[in-house]
Amino acid sequence: MNTSIITVLKIKEFRNFIAGRFVFIMGLRMMGTLVSWWMYEITGDAFYIGMIGLAEAIPAVGLSLYAGYVVDKTEKRKLLLRAVFLFGVCSIILLGTSTQWFQEAFGTKLIMMFIYTVIFCTGIIRSFSGPGFGAIIASLVPKNLLITAAQLSSTSWLIASITGHAVAGFLIAWLHITGTFLVIASLIFTGLLLLSKLKEKPPGISAEKKTIEAVKEGLRYVFNTKELLAALSLDLFAVLFGGAVAMVPVFAKDILNVGPIGFGWLNAAADIGSIIMVISLTLRPMKRKQGIKLLFAVAGFGVCIILFAISKFYWLSFAALLVSGILDGVSVVVRGNIVQLKTPDALRGRVMSVNSMFINSSNEIGQFESGVSAKLMGIVPSVVFGGCMTILVVVITWFKAPSLKKLEY
Q1: 101 located within any domain
Q2: Given Cys at both, which of 80, 127, 191, 352 links 134, Cβ 3.0 to 4.6 Å?
Q3: Domain-embedded: residue 34
Q4: What gap in Å lies between CA 131 and CA 80, rounded to an integer?
């Protein structure tokens, strides 16, 4: 094993961080998967899956820049613990909403209202937790180990994501919706316990700095750092238009005719591919031409999304999503390294909030776009359209951001 990986893993605080975030993210990804399945089961309409994405994206995007300022001026450990605790509260509310008693007492419409309200609240919380998790990594390890720590962090995140996605499908089959929410709540509070072992982390800026001035400072830095802006923009539009995973419940039920277990594996396919690539790049990092490899990877991702859309065979759909994940893993690693390397410590919260706004929220906005497109075009044409738009974004970036093609680190 790479000696720098061993060195990073010897740092106890970093291990507690990785373990705590792992079980937390696993629970969170299970919750996203379960809510999408639950909503489609209730309504039978892909549009309402898309509305889940919009409900979370509105607060997550709207508050992200302010949240980055709060992260930089706040003790980060306390902020993360509060955010994870509130996610746990949301999971318990959804657990109660999913019970047979609640369904019989209040009916489907009120259940849908509760789901959208809770997801809106998770969007508010995530606007703070996303940049908080990203900003704290640099304070856990020495600067010379930051790249290794960032890649290990990405790897653990993806493994947690895979596990959450895949296990959610199996748990829906075995424990049904209420039992699965019970598991989710347990995971989130276990993550809270592990993260509570971190030491306090001092603020990056003084509390006296004006909010607007501080927010502008973070935005200016991102927009003036061309390679960073190009990498974030490329990922933003690729995820926005290539959000086929949001429609997996529809493909699983209505096109491929598989149940919860088949749905779980389809849902996990892209993440399995991503982790294969991220582990490979952690053990054997790319040495040269990372920028141009990023562009080719995102273009290949778009091709895989088109193939998934037109496939009528389960194995081919699974393979298309698996390869899309492998290519997305390249994007995750390259973008993550660019963000960590090019961000000054005092600006980490604000830059991470822009990163969160560009990348994380694009998943939810992409989910909304997929739901609306499916309503307007039909499910298969909408996903084909998304894959074509992803390829178009790469072509535009190729000509409009030549510095990204030349990027090496």
Answers
A1: yes
A2: 352
A3: yes
A4: 10
- Alpha carbon distance 24, 86 (integer Å): 12
Total number of domains in the chain: 1
Tokens of 361: 């929220």
Instruction: Return the SS3 of 71.
Output: helix
Q: How far apart are CA 87 and CA 245, in angstroms?
A: 23
Tokens of 192: 């809270």
Cβ neighbours of residue 4 closer than 8 Å, sequence gap 6 or more: 145, 148
**Residues 122, 124, 126, 130, Cα dihedral to 10°:** 180
Summarised one tens digit per residue, pLDDT across range 316-351 is 999 999 999 899 888 878 877 777 777 776 677 777
Report residue 100 as tokens. 């047979």
- Euclidean distance between CA atoms 207 and 199, whole angstroms: 20
Nearest-Å Rg of the Cα atoms of the chain is 20
Q: Is residue 157 part of a domain?
A: yes
Question: For residue 290, which of 234, 244, 240, 251 has the smallest C-alpha distance?
Answer: 234
Tokens encoding 52 = 């889940």
pLDDT digits (tens, 9 = 90+) for 126-185: 888 988 888 888 889 888 888 788 878 878 887 888 788 778 878 888 899 999 999 999
DSSP, res 148: H
In the block, tokens 């994380």 appear at 360
CA 90, CA 95: separation in Å to the nearest integer? 9
Length of the chain: 409
Q: What CATH number has the domain bearing residue 217?
A: 1.20.1250.20
Q: CA 264, CA 146: separation in Å to the nearest integer?
A: 34
First to last CA, the chain: 22
CB atoms inside a 10 Å sphere around CB 313:
9
Is residue 28 within 8 A of residue 188, CB to CB? The reply is yes
pTM: 0.72
Exposure of 218 in the CB half-sphere (CA atoms within 13 A): 34
For the stretch 255-313, pLDDT in tens is 898 877 788 788 778 878 887 887 888 778 787 788 888 899 999 999 999 999 999 99
The whole-angstrom separation of Cα 328 and Cα 330 is 5
- For 40, the domain range is 11-200+209-405
Q: Identify whether the C-beta of residue 313 lies closer than 8 Å to the C-beta of residue 258.
A: no
